[in-house]
Amino acid sequence: MEQLNIDTVNRLSKVSKTAGGKGLNVSRVLAQLGAPITATGVIGGHYGNYLTEQLDKDDIHHNFSKIAGETRSCIAILHEGQQTEILESGPQVSKEEQANYIANFEKILSDANYVTISGSLPKGIHHDFYSVLTEKATLANARVLLDTSGATLKRSIESDYKPFLIKPNETEIADLIGKEIKSEPTLVEALEDEKFDGIEWIVVTLGADGALVKNKNNYYRVEIPTIDVKKPVGSGDSTIAGLAYALYKNETPEVVIKTGMVTGMLNTQEEKTGYINVDNFEALFEQVKIIKI
Ligand code: ADP
């Protein structure tokens, strides 16, 4: 909109509707990369149906569990170079629906060697839910890439069944260990904390500044080129997709990191969220620098 007017009617001609949310952004980019995936979660009501229709249109294989509540709809208004969001809080998921979802998840696992879990939990779900999914996945020999925050992330890293990869930002790491992070050395020191033991990959993305990555006991500083950015929303999700894809392809740590950086960057160059132009992959890939520190 050219202008957002408060306390009156706003009429708009330019509207686009997408199957959104972090998990679906990851799914879309993985599908674009050519990975054989199944998108899963819970859906309900008309918006739930609309969402699966959109996934069908994009050829994204899916297997969702139905719930009684209505899938939420969120509105992002782009106006005067700003983005105002109106987010519904989403449906309640009952205990029975959670059990149904877990049973469905276990079936999907029989076919999966990597699982990506993104975003916050819906209402009614305990913050240990992702730890339960991680345990099920680990026992089925699937590795989990987890992109969440707050109590849910804390619970997951304290669990006996650790995620294979996490993608916290600096603030989340500071919150987890209760220390301030001011510089690269303090970030590295923070990642040495025993709280992170047993997590093979920790990818701290830093927007235009690239990332700092811990893989086993190795630390890498990742430098990326300056690029023209259209819309950075969803870059972290695209990074998760790139990391998952390269891990699934058994690539070296360097290629895994570079792939994640490039898919993140490619997303910033598009108007659409959680969408990349694969044609530009190679050119950017050459320009990512990895420095072992
Ligand atoms: P999140 O969306 O989770 O906050 P980031 O903003 O750190 O994640 O972005 C993830 C990745 O996307 C970065 O590591 C980088 O590769 C790419 N990226 C994000 N913002 C920019 C930017 N302004 N310029 C170039 N690359 C970017």
Automatic annotation (TrEMBL):
InterPro entries: Carboh/pur_kinase_PfkB_CS, PfkB_dom, Ribo/fructo_kinase, Ribokinase-like, Tagatose/fructose_Pkinase
PANTHER family found in the cross-reference section: 1-PHOSPHOFRUCTOKINASE, 1-PHOSPHOFRUCTOKINASE-RELATED
Top-level taxon in the UniProt lineage: Bacteria
Residue intervals of the Carbohydrate kinase PfkB domain: 8-275
Annotated catalysed reactions: D-tagatofuranose 6-phosphate + ATP = D-tagatofuranose 1,6-bisphosphate + ADP + H(+)
PROSITE patterns hit by this protein: PFKB_KINASES_1, PFKB_KINASES_2
Class in the EC hierarchy, top level: transferase
Keywords linked to the UniProt accession: ATP-binding, Kinase, Lactose metabolism, Nucleotide-binding, Transferase
Protein name (database record): Tagatose-6-phosphate kinase
Record pathway: Carbohydrate metabolism; D-tagatose 6-phosphate degradation; D-glyceraldehyde 3-phosphate and glycerone phosphate from D-tagatose 6-phosphate: step 1/2
Lineage of the organism: Bacteria, Bacillati, Bacillota, Bacilli, Lactobacillales
Gene3D superfamilies named among the record's database cross-references: 3.40.1190.20
GO molecular function list: kinase activity
Family that this chain belongs to: Belongs to the carbohydrate kinase PfkB family. LacC subfamily. Belongs to the carbohydrate kinase pfkB family.
NCBIfam families: 1-PFK (TIGR03168)
EC id: 2.7.1.144
Pfam families: PfkB
